Structures are given as C-alpha cells and as structure tokens.
Amino acid sequence: MFEAAELGQSVSKDEYREREPVLRGELLDAQNRLRASAAFPVIVVFAGVDGAGKGQTVNLLNTWMDPRWLVTRAFGEPSDEEQERPEYWRFWRALPPRGRIGLFLSSWYSRPVLDRVYRRMSSNAYEHCLNRIVEFEQALAEDGALILKFWMHLGKEAQHTRLKKLEKDPTLRWKVDAFAWKHWRKYDAFITTAEHTIRQTNRGDAPWMIVEGADARYRSLTVGTAIRDAVIKRLDAAAEATSAARARADTPAAGRARRVSSGVTTILSNLDMTKQVAPAKAEERLDRYQGRLNLLERQAGAAGISTILVFEGWDAAGKGGAIRRVTSALEARQSQVIPIAAPTDEERAHHYLWRFWRHLSRAGRFTIFDRSWYGRVLVERVEGFATERAWMRAYAEINQFESQLIEHGIVLVKFWLHITQDEQLRRFKEREATPHKRWKLTDEDWRNRERWGAYALAVNDMIERTSTGDAPWTLVEANDKQYARVKVLKTVCDRLERAVAHRRR
Amino acid sequence: MFEAAELGQSVSKDEYREREPVLRGELLDAQNRLRASAAFPVIVVFAGVDGAGKGQTVNLLNTWMDPRWLVTRAFGEPSDEEQERPEYWRFWRALPPRGRIGLFLSSWYSRPVLDRVYRRMSSNAYEHCLNRIVEFEQALAEDGALILKFWMHLGKEAQHTRLKKLEKDPTLRWKVDAFAWKHWRKYDAFITTAEHTIRQTNRGDAPWMIVEGADARYRSLTVGTAIRDAVIKRLDAAAEATSAARARADTPAAGRARRVSSGVTTILSNLDMTKQVAPAKAEERLDRYQGRLNLLERQAGAAGISTILVFEGWDAAGKGGAIRRVTSALEARQSQVIPIAAPTDEERAHHYLWRFWRHLSRAGRFTIFDRSWYGRVLVERVEGFATERAWMRAYAEINQFESQLIEHGIVLVKFWLHITQDEQLRRFKEREATPHKRWKLTDEDWRNRERWGAYALAVNDMIERTSTGDAPWTLVEANDKQYARVKVLKTVCDRLERAVAHRRR
After folding, report:
1. A94 CB near a chain B CB, below 8 Å?
2. CB within 8 Å: B67 and A32
3. DSSP string of B336-375?
4. Does residue A63 belong to the interface with chain B, where contact is any CB pair within 8 Å?
5. B68 vs A55, A68, A337: nearest CB
6. Phi and psi of B303, rounded to 5°?
7. Do B331 and A59 touch (CB under 8 A)?
8. Cβ atoms within 10 Å of A505's Cβ, excluding its own
9. Is the CA virtual torsion B388, B391, B393, B395 positive or negative?
10. Interface confidence (ipTM) of the complex
C-alpha cells in the first residue's frame, strides 16, 4: 500500500517558490469563503509515521491560512474529566463548528493504532474500534462535514536516517528519546496495522490520502493542494445545491405527515391503558421506591456508575410530574435535569448529537433528559424540520451513541409515557380551566394533537428501531398518573439494582 | 452574631401543612416568570454548620420548584482541568444563565473558610480571598444577578446531639466519620471565621441571611420565603425599569461620542510614529525572535506556564499580521487564536467576562485574543452598546480578572497597535484598490474612522486604568509593519524569558 509513498518524490526550491504563494492565496480565499458561508465544518486528520512531518505540516497550514479560523487539536493522556466520560466525548468536544477548519494532529485513530501495535488490544477489540471510527466519521459526513485524512509516510530506512541525524543535532536531540527508538523497532508491526486501518476506514466521504513525507516541500504542497481542492469543490457544490433547492421549492414533509389517519395500529395500540394503582396504595408505593432509589443512588455513586434517564411522551402525558418524583428521591447535587428545547446557535453549528454529548456528566451522577435526541425522529420527522434522509439515518446514529454510553458503564433508561387521545383532551381542557396551569398549554399542543396519527407512527418506528438489549424502551401506561410514576420509579430502581450488583461481581 | 439563630425557632406541623403548598405555588410562579423574562440569573449560596440542613434544603427546593430550570452545584476536589486554570474558572463555568436559578451547595466560600479554620491559610491570605469574593459577587450583581446567601446555623450543643443521634441510626451512621467529629471539635474556630467572613462579605447586593437550622420546617419555610420574595421583588423592579426606559427613550451614548474632536491629546499622541526598521534588517530580526520564541515556548510549556496575548488596535493597524508572526513561531497544537466578534446567544446570557473565562486554556499553552475583553471599554463604550455605568465599572472588573490570571502564573501580554489617521487612510485605500483585500474593508471601518477622537479618548482611559505592574500595556508604533512585528515578538520573548527564569529560581 505504501510503495507509492516511497518513490522519493520531491519538489525543487524553484518550483516551490513559484507555487507556494499561489497556493497560500487560494487556501486563504477558500477559508474565507468557507467562513462566510458557514455551510459545513472541515475536519482534517493527520496520522502516520513519526518524523513524516505531521507537526510541521500543521504548523505550516497555520501560517498559510488565517489562524483565527483554524482549530488545531492534539490529544494527550485523557484528563480525569475525560476519563469519566465515554472515550469520544473529548473528540465531540473538539469538533469545529460549521465554517471552520479543524486540524487534528492526533485523533480517534491514535490510541487504537498504538494499542494494537503494542498488542495491548486484541484483534477483535481493534475491529470494534475501527467500526466505531467509521460510524463516527459517517455521522459527521452525513451531517455535511468535509473530512480529509492524511497518512504521512516515511520508509523504515528513511526514518532510521532521520533519527540518527536528529541525535547529532544538539538543539534537536531532545526529540529522540528511548520511546522514539522503541517505536522505530516496531516499524513493521506499525505498517501492518496502518494498512489494515486505512483499508477499513477509507470511505468515500472520509477518504485517506497517503503522502510521502520525506521531502518537506513536496508534502506541504500536496497536503495544501488537497485541502484547497476539496474545500472549493464542496463550497461550489453547496452553493449549487442551495440555488437548486430554492428553484425546486419543495413541499415540506409536514404536509405529508398530516394525512396519516389517527386510527393507525402501532405498538402503542397494544398497551393496556386501563392500568391503574389504587390511590390508597400509590403513596405508600411511591415512598417505598423513592427510598430504595435514594439508597441505590448512593451505591451507584460510590461505584462510579452514571445514570441517564430519557423521558419522551405525548404532550400532557405527565413527564414533568414523573421527573419530579425521581429527582425528589435524589441528592440534588448529584443530579441534573436537562430540558431539551430549541438548540442555541452554538448547538446549531454542530451535528445534532453534539448538544447531547456536551451534557454528559462526570462519573457517578444522574442526568435526566426531559425530551432528548429522539426529537430527531419524532417532532423533527413529523414537522418536516429534518429531511427524510436525516431522520432515517438518525436511528443508526442514536443506537451508536447509546452503545457508547452503555459501553462506558452508564445505565441508560428510556421512557415513553403514553396516554390515550381522550385522556389528552381531558387534560388539555383541565389545563385551560385552571388559571395557574393555563400557561402550560400552547397552540402548539393543539397542533401536535391534530397529527396524532403521524406521531404514533413515528413513535412506533422509534421503539422498533432503537429498543436494544442494553437500552430498551419502557412503555409507560400513563392514563393513571400515579400508576405511571410508580412504574417509572420501579423501572429505574430495577435497572440500577442490576447495574450495582453486576459491578460488585 | 449567631445568637438570633439559637432561639429554638420552629414551625408546627399544622402551620407547615398550611403554608407549604402556598409557598410552593408561589415559588413555581416566580420561577416561571423568571424564565419567561430571562431578565437575570439567580445565584443562591448555601454555607454554614454541618448538619444545619444545607443539603436537605437544596433537595427540598428541587422538589418545590421545577428542577428543569434549576442548576444545583457543589464543588469537590478540583479536577485536573480545573487545577490548571485560575481557581474561579470552575465557578464561572457553573454560573446559571439569565432566567435560571443556581443553587450552590458549596461555593467560592468553602475552600477559604475551611483552610482558615484549619490554619492552612494565613490571615492575610484570607483577607485576600474575601476581597476576591466581594469583587466577584459585585461584578455579578452589577450585571443584574440576584444573589442570596444563606448561612445555616446550628449551636455547638445541637450539633453534638445530632452527631450522637446519627451514630445510633444504622442507616445513617455512614454520615458520621472521623472528619465529622474532628470538624465538630473545631466548632469555635469555625464560628469565629464564619462571623468574620459574613461581616466582610455582607453587601447590599449580595446579603447574608442567617437561618436557624435546627427545625427543618422552620428553615425550609424561611429559605423558601426569602427566595420567593427576592425573586418577585426583582422581577417587578425589572418590569418597571423596562417600561420606564421605554418611556424615557434615551439619547444613545453614541450620539455624545461623535462630538469628540479627533485632535485630542492622549497617551497615543506622544508615540514616535516615525519609528521603523530597515527592510534588510527586518527579516533577520523577525527570524531571530521567532527562533527564540519557539525555544521559550517549549521551556514555558515544560514549566507549565500559560501565556495569554491580547491584541487591540485601530482597524488596519496590522493585528492579523502581527498575530501570524507570533503563531508561526509556535507549535500549532499548543496555541489557539480566539477571534472576538459578536457574542453567541449562550454568551449573551451571561456576564460579559464569561466568554473569556471559558476560553482559558489548560497549563502550558498559548492563547491569543484577537480583540478581547477590552471591547467593553472601547467599541461598546464609544458606540453606546454598554451603558456608562457598565463600561465605567469594567475597568475594575478587568483588573480583577487579569490579577487572577497573573496570580495563577499566567504570562499576560497586552498590545495596542497604533497607527496614525493618515496611515489608516492610506491602508484603507490600498485595500479598496486590491481585489483580494477588498473584503477586509467594511462600511463599519469607515464609520469607526469618523469617531477617531472618541476612540482615542477611550484608548487613553483604558491604558491609564488597566496598565498594571504585572499586566502592562505595550504600545506598538505600527505605521511601519515590520517594526511593529519585531516589537511584538521581542516583547513576548522578553516577558516569557523573565517568567521562565523566575519559575526556575
């Protein structure tokens, strides 16, 4: 695979002197156009052999372009805040917003590749890592990110020569430590892993480019040109797509959604909506489960187990009340309720999952989402805020996101609070009639109600596609509020108990 | 001071049963009004004797109010990310945005009080901490934050009884560890420190309320009522102020600014604007300083010294070019340029310094601000975006902010790049005439130019009031670009060299 990167390609001083200023100007122009359009983020990943010029190239790109709109990232040992979250939290945190270019001097590739070369990771685990990378890059690319990956190569002999040369230079000798030589001796294993990695992660929307790193002028022009071309091509395509879309003047997906009848049969149709708990028993059972939850919270906290609760459900299904029954059993300092409404402008400048990643808490805490990432396949689908392509792929993205939470040991519990259409109408009318509850009822609630059928279908699809073994949906029959609250509390307790017991073993 | 909190005040069950639901409803209403107005943040600090019900009260408030709009915070041992920044970084990070209520179960008071009680901190250092607290709270209050501080009290005997009682309860015994008794034996020292602390930090816009903590019903109603009253009072005042302001229809401050003649004499008038460097020498000197800076960066990085560079200056004074000469000497992964333009909506929901706190980097890095927190006393002053009161107090707030950076060991270098009016005109015209530079020149640049005199006065005041021993302004004569770049690089090198030498001693 790397033969083509050991051809001894080089660029003469004269050629460089001629091409460099032109390329700089074009890169700067491309960067300015990108910033003005804010159409997509650019993610440039560098990987490869030590000494093949990764750092120098990134430094050079920082001089060629406007450093104010570049984000340069490298990842060392994870900080304790990073260690307490799933691995990819630090990568999500570091992503550039639309309109900016992120240069990743080390990345999601670094740890797996090194761990594999030094045999700290099994071949199976490595495949798992590579799949995660593919999924991650795919999610970003589907969201519009332009992803470019450069593998900077240097032959074994060339690297040997380089290390020897550095050792002789008193000002650069510090760069050659024991690790550098140790790493050199692993060269063959490194190349084998590299080939496999590149093959598995080389996708159309996140391609690898292998760059011969021996000649600084050659590699600089090669990388710079590739970035320039890719950015300009994508900008042109984006501009064209915008004007084409304007010409077409699509019918919004919402139009379609409204035509779904509300009598449709879904998973929800099978729920026994007469379930209730006797008022006399309700208080006693709520108290019991709250006490149990309080104890479990402390045990989970001590074991470093984080818990994430997701609440979705019909308007007026009683999400708020159920959440309060949970939080009132918890230590307020250990828990946080995150209400999900319209995204802020910073959130809008990133992939839609970004805002949920940023809310992941440190170890041992409770995070409760009042509505969640499922908005993508519910309201955004039904109202046509997301394209069909976007919400269709969201199921897979959500499953990938949740599997990372679970792998990190987080207990994830998801609730759909279900009420019947009649019960919703009764509650809406009650809210209308009660002065201090009237603010809770908006025109939007009435509009959503008209699309009951479309929402029911969306809920059905959501549950079918995202209820997994480790992150199942719990459907809560919520016509009786007390019954719903007891069921929510009991479910949280059961799941937490299992997690604590499992951790102890 | 605490006598009034040892009177044995209590509330009967019947009274509580009557008052509690009313108070809950009112608190919820106040919270909803606050959220709808998004007029100001509410910061509620809890401190006091262990066992006086801090945690229980905060938990209760979380059940009384809507937990979705509450932010509950407590601070344990600082994480490594926190340790690498000035102490208050974690507090700034945790502040609630306008419209929300933050409950601080521990706070900026916790560490200093404990350190003082256990004599790990000198009395002088303690006074310094208290001053910092007063300044911090004052800055937030001046920005509109409603600050309430509750000191939860329990007499020495009462605390003794409580510990004994807890020890007898098998389910609660875990709460009484060796530290709890050790802490109890320090009770008198604690009370002395507490009295002093409360006296020094009890200000009109951030008052302390001492609450007798022995009776749970009494303390809950007392705290809840105080929060309700303060929030409602402030909401009413805010609503009144808004309508009054509308009625007045102020003349904007900008109107005044424009009348300042541009011939005004300021600190800038004394600069020798003919300074230049011979073109032949410029390249060689730039190279030399860049080499020196690169070496110093590594030494500073190894010593954990962070560097912050602030660039301010006239439009077209060459900030961008100077910044690029600095960044091109640095490792891109170790440095970050932060361009300061309009704030995002998340930033707008906080104190104006919040957005700068959030950009402080981990130890050993370079952060370069292209424009900065000085916008408050420059553009915001001249254009009337900030009220006179707001920009007048900003000098003190900025000095306090910078002193925290310096205390943490950060090297702070501030540049004002100065050009003459004639030179600016020449550069504007050159930009107009050069196709690929035309985008850099906006109508705003021409408008700013018309207000040269007002800006010159603002710059003069800024330098006079914020040039301190540890954070002096460097005025850069920038009519000759090369001269300016050399001076910037040399200044950064000199300051960094001193810091590295100092750290070594």
Report:
1. no
2. no
3. EEEE--SPPHHHHTS-TTHHHHTTPPPTT-EEEEES-GGG
4. yes
5. A337
6. -85, 0
7. yes
8. 4
9. negative
10. 0.84
- Closest Cβ–Cβ partner in B59, B73, B344 for A331: B59
CATH number at residue A172: 3.40.50.300
Residue A49 lies in a domain: yes
Q: Does B327 touch chain A (CB under 8 A)?
A: yes
B167 part of a folded domain:
yes
Inside any domain, residue B124 = yes
Give the separation between CA B235 and CA B229, rounded to whole angstroms. Answer: 10
Q: How many domains does chain B have?
A: 2
The answer to whether residues B44 and B171 belong to one domain is yes
> Shortest CA distance to A276 belongs to which of A476, A492, A459?
A476
Is B327 in contact with A62 (Cβ distance < 8 A)?
yes
**Position B246 confidence tier, pLDDT thresholds 50, 70, 90:** low
Could you tell me the two tokens for A472? 């199942």
Q: Is A66 on the interface with B (CB under 8 A)?
A: yes
pLDDT tens across A283-318, in order?
A: 999 999 999 999 999 999 999 999 999 999 999 999
Per-residue pLDDT of A250-283, as tens digits, reads 444 444 444 566 667 788 888 999 999 998 899 9
Answer yes or no: do A73 and B323 touch at CB < 8 A. no
* Range(s) of the domain holding residue B178: 3-239
Are B58 and B121 part of one and the same domain? yes
For B296-307, how does the pLDDT look when each residue is reduced to its tens digit (9 = 90+)? 999 999 999 999
Per DSSP, the three-state class of B269 is helix
Give the tokens for residue B432: 């107009």
Radius of gyration over every alpha carbon of chain B, rounded to an integer in angstroms: 27
Contact yes or no for B103 and A339 at CB 8 A: no
Best residue in A62, A296, A366, A442 for a mutation probing chain B (most B CBs within 10 Å): A62
One-letter amino acid at B92 equals W
Chain segment A419-431, per-residue pLDDT in tens: 999 999 999 999 9
Cα A494 to Cα A108: distance, rounded to the nearest angstrom: 35
Q: Are residues B417 and B335 in the same domain?
A: yes
- A300 and A337 together in one domain: yes
Q: Touching check for B143 and chain A: CB below 8 Å?
A: no
Chain A's closest residue to B25, CA to CA, is A436
CB contact under 8 A, B63 and A324: yes
Please measure the distance between the N-terminal and C-terminal CA atoms of chain B and give it in whole angstroms. 46
| B103: nearest CB among A32, A332, A370 | A332
A72 to chain B: closest CA residue: B333
Cross-chain residue pair A72–B105, CB shorter than 8 Å: no
CB contact at 8 A, A293 and A496 = yes
Q: What gap in Å lies between CA A148 and CA A41, rounded to an integer?
A: 11
Task: Identify whether residues A206 and A326 lie together within a single domain.
Answer: no
Cβ contacts of A362 on chain B, cutoff 8 Å? 79
Q: For chains A and B, count residue pairs whose Cβ atoms are closer than 8 Å.
A: 112
Is residue A192 domain-shared with residue A327, that is, in the same domain?
A: no
Domain ends where: B217, B239, B261? B239
Mean pLDDT for the stretch of residues A155-167: 90
Return the structure tokens found at A76.
Answer: 């060392």
Q: How far apart are CA A62 and CA A103, in angstroms?
A: 9
> Do A228 and A306 lie in a common domain?
no
In a domain, B261, yes or no: no
Among A198, A215, A246, the domain boundary falls at: A246
Residue that has been written with the tokens 């959220």 in this structure: B35
How, if at all, do strands A411-418 and A335-339 pair? unpaired
Identify which of B71, B333, B362 has the shortest CB distance to residue A72: B333
| Interface touch A70/B337, C-beta < 8 Å | yes
B359 touches chain A (CB under 8 A): no
Evaluate if residue B11 carries a pLDDT over 50: yes
Angle in degrees, 0-180, between the axes of helices B54-64 and A319-327, rounded to the nearest 10:
170
Helix or strand holding residue A96 (H, E): none
A242 shares its domain with A279: no
